[in-house]
Here is the input.
Amino acid sequence: MRRLTIYLAMILLLLAVAGTGDSPAGTWDLKKDPSGVVKAYLSLDMKGARLEAISWETLKPYIAWKEEPSWEHVVVIESYEVVEDVAAWEILGLMEALIPVRFQVLGVMYWETASFVPESKVEEFRVRVKAVGDRWRIIEPQLAPHVGQKRMINFVRQAMLQETDGLKLMKLAELRDELRKVGREPS
Here is the structure.
């Protein structure tokens, strides 16, 4: 009976170790394209993973920093592009590179005033990716959250459902309407 228990425990351990390749942390090993870690991180950011502290754990496999600063604003975006052409990257060493990223920005939403300032532009950054241990990690820059327009509208809607103060509710409704208007062609 003891042999059977040890045998089953070994099989479960092997299955657990083999299954780690499907986890986000296991996906960005050094044999893979380092731009993948940037794409995964930005995808989560665009979906609002940094809007609430509870989501912090989902981002840890992609970054090297230990703490997320508190941001006074959120950059509302339409889209982003990670440049995959290695010729456009700046190679800093055998296991480190700067990868260009472009955001199609719609504007900035400020937490304190629940206001939105539209500013359509292309924002470009170079994301430094480096081998940390046996995985690719984003080293810098620590950008303010870059959240998609639809997700930001849904976040404001959720805040409206939870708000009981009439004035704050009115301000949130104005914010929602401003976020809806941005990016639309004039009628």
Remarks:
- The chain has six helices and six strands.
- The CA atoms of residues 127 and 141 lie 6 Å apart.
- Residues 25-148 form a domain with the Nuclear Transport Factor 2; Chain: A, fold (CATH 3.10.450).
